[in-house]
Amino acid sequence: MISPDVRKTQITPHLPSFRALIALEAVVRHGNIVKAADELGVTSGAVSKQLSALEGALGARLFETGHRLVPLPAALTLSRSVGYAVSIVRDSWNEVAQNAAGRTMFIAANASFCMQWLAPRLLQAQKIVGGRPVQMSWLSSSDSWIRNNVDFAFLRGRVPPGDWICEDVGGETVTFFGNPEWCSRAREMGPQRLAQARFIKATTRPFVLERLLTAAGVDSTVDAQETTQFYIAIEAALAGDGLLAAPIALCRELVMLGRLAIPFPEITVAGERIIFASNPSTCSPAVQRRMSQWVQEEFRASDRLCTD
To answer: What is the CATH topology of the domain spanning 4-100?
Structure first.
């Protein structure tokens, strides 16, 4: 351990404001006071004042005289050192935030996505984040999904906070699903007689059934039982209550298990885009990159058409 006497000789007693040094680094990097001020969330006047304070403390100029911001050697030296110091602090903070006390990571998504897509892959997600525990956070349309320190979120028709890192995972592919008995019955009727079938739809996914029926060439009113949540509609389809218009990614596992089937694989429509969002304040860049790559690969694989 360094003794107090040695520390006194190593640390300048009149070290300038760290905010002023941060402002200098931003100005040198951007070459523009206005851009630096925007990044720091302050006024350009405040940045100019901080630069003047640094020059006063040094007793020397940091930029050449004139309208253009041309940094002098002293400014370049300080800027490099501050940038390096900030990068070390940022990396250390991210590491501590990610690993502190084995904190559980939370992934937010709507209930049907959690149940049908995320739950079967939860152990894989834990491996991706280095073995840390991962929990799902179920959300309804009225919930604020950024509560409870959520680390990742799957969004469908929602706008994340501006500082979150967002990536378009891909669009859903929607087709008809039903239990094997209903699908056998639907195939016997054929697409041209689909209007005679019974259907299930959820209020949380408006117009999906209608769009798929239009793609099938059905323009008449059909018998459709409505549920308040999509996961309830899936359960109704499993129970044999009718055919369901659903994303392949959410029902693929049930098809592979033989619990659901696809009567007309040639009839599909594009669904909504799925956005994968990462919280930069709780996820290190390395974890974010690994999760993003895994999600992209898994979702694209799960959205491929499968038939019974």
So the answer is: Arc Repressor Mutant, subunit A (1.10.10)
